[in-house]
């Protein structure tokens, strides 16, 4: 009986760890602007619907800046294609990402999705989205109003202008740090197909279940096995 319990315990952990190991996240760098229609369409209609399913495979790297210019290096003067509000909107994304990405990547992705569904990013929309996505609003607001917001927006400006090849449309999406036109075209058309062309189970080489539309069964089995172990104990 004892050895059976140990076996079940090992089994549970074995399944748990092998499930963890299968994730080799792909870094997805999105160069975009909050006021660019194609960018909003990408996040809300292509990326958003699949984020939840693929989040373990995704390291989302956001570069909000878009077709704007950073004019004065000393005074952080930005000129945005659609006016000053666009620069501020990009700063909100920049700050939320900068402050929370390392600790709460999922919440940041949801915050970006939430704000891009709104027609305008008014103050109330942003506060509401922060609350809905369980991000503390005050640090983000502080960053936007202080110099940090400009510093980090300027960093996005630098990354945008240094992109190879030169960016000709937004969003521009790099996978694992490289731009590939075919993947870009696929990603804006069918994000699931793009991510699935890149990820595979490192042990078996098979496509992960997420790509087949099936639910992730591994955590489910692991729960069943744990429950069995508990039952057998009595
Ligand atoms: C992307 O990079 C990660 C980390 O370096 C690696 O594990 C993964 O295999 C890469 N994926 C692709 C498709 O290159
Ligand atoms: C994105 O936001 C919309 C509108 O608020 C919501 O219906 C949808 O579930 C969100 N998607 C994700 C992946 O969070
Ligand atoms: C950026 O904006 C300028 C001026 O509106 C326009 O001529 C140019 O085509 C835009 N470039 C991109 C990549 O959207």
From TrEMBL:
The keyword Signal applies. Keywords: Glycoprotein, Secreted, Signal. InterPro entries: Interferon-induced_GILT. One of its GO terms (molecular function) is oxidoreductase activity, acting on a sulfur group of donors, disulfide as acceptor. Residues 1-19 form the signal peptide. It is found in: Secreted. It comes from the Eukaryota. The keyword Protein transport does not apply. GO terms for cellular component: extracellular region. It holds the Pfam family GILT. Belongs to the GILT family. This is Saposin A-type domain-containing protein.
